[in-house]
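In this section we walk through a basic example: taking a raw amino acid sequence and producing a predicted 3D structure, encoded as discrete structure tokens. The instruction is simple. Fold the sequence below.
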Amino acid sequence: MAQKKSVTDKLGEDEVVFDPLDMNNYRVEKFKKIEKVGFEKWMEIAGGPLAILVFLFIYFFADFSFLSHINLEALRKGGEQRLNELGEAKFIKINYAMLAIFAGAIVLWITEAIPNYLTSLLVILLMVLTGVTSEQVAYAQLGHPVMWLNILSFILASMLVTTHLAKRFALWFVIKFGKSAQGIFFSFIVINLVLSVFVSATTAKATILLPIFMVIAAIYGANDNHRNNFGRNIVLQNLFQNNVGASGFITGSGANLLAGSMIAGALGQRFFGFQEWFIAAFPLCVILLLMGWFVGTKLVFPMTTEEQKPQIEGGMERLKKEYAALGKMTFNEYKSLAIFVSVLILWVTDKQHGISQTAVALMAAIIALLPKIGVVKWNDVDIPWHLMLFSAGAYALGAGLDATNLPGSMIDSLFIYFNITAATPFWILYLGLTFAMLFSSIIFQSKTMRTLIFIPISIGVAQKFGYPVMSLSFPLALLIEHVYVLPFNSKPAALLYSTNQYSIIDSVKFGVPMLFVTWVMIIVWGETVLRFLHYTPKGVFF
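The resulting token sequence is shown next.
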């Protein structure tokens, strides 16, 4: 039997009523910030002093054998001129400085002792003061092509939000195809995939969809005072779909684009093609989304018959009223749709016309902002500059790693320690790197950082052993978006955790199994699809 729910607090003669079906109640700014307690609080307190100690120890006192000699690979990559300019002693000291900055930044990013953007600014400053890179190189990362695409993506996302086109599409799809609990889950798979093509900011996607799926959670009996498996599933599935949906497209996130630019650079290409990524990644993305739905709704959080029935009378009718309130599509919505489709066509056909994804997005942003012609004003554009500054610091760190060839030196040292030689089978390298890439997401809170660490390593390993660059780097690039286990693993994870619809234990119970499922799938993918596309060598697994 359906039950009516409302929360009423009486204060004197005033009455405040919480309407669980009002989307305005689920705006991001209305969610309480989750206060850190226990281990997380201690990490935050200890993070600053620990980062300082790590930096000072490595920079002034450590003696690492892999940094105490000049790496030959660094010379081949252009380090010889810098070595001659600085001298051997200073060149080695710069390698120590890079490692100290890198390690200190990792501590600060993981513990969140200070805001992420502030850590990035410290990284840039220290790289300049220690001579790791020049001021020109360090500051220029704010103009990185991927940075530009991130900014442009937020402009285009603002276009979808301001014109209500994204909300209209999401509501229409849920109303049309979400006539049952399972239909709702499949509807959000499609919605997240469509938005992932165009919106490279996963946080923006989460913000767009959060009010809609929270109203649906309330309709099915999940609220602030009562958790149920429908509520757990609808939020965790959206978190999973938001991130993994982005893995199907190179434009799905800035980290994907960064990985693509690194791989393209190693291949001597101007940019990584949308088509190349899509053909290999999209089918895997869809399979994982369906597996995630099965694991979540059937195995980890199976829903009772009662939980799959609406618990509030007229709940779906409220969604229909919300959709009807949007009225007929406006001229600006049609223009937004035209821009959306045009960008998609140009991205999909990038190999034919040779225009990069960033240039296409720039053209679209200019049209969207044009007075009297466009559909959005600059004041309506919501660009999170703190995220841009964080990304700039991460890219500066990547430039420093490249300048010192620190990853190459560390790889050589690790290979010697573990006795990995040219005779080591490809599949051992493949298994080890894909496992490290996937499960490092539990520790790191930045997809960009994992990209900057693991993609250069995979390229270096492939080149060292004589394998194609794509054979190891591309599979790792397909795993960038798996950041959904713990609240600090990504911004969408932190945002959706604040809904209070699931616990950290719940997210671990769903997230860790999905990491193992994904690892098995990337192994299968390497031996089938990636092998068929000539990315991985033939017959290396079976």
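Looking at the output, two observations stand out. The first strand starts at residue 7 and ends at 11. The radius of gyration is 24 Å. In the next section we compare this with other chains.
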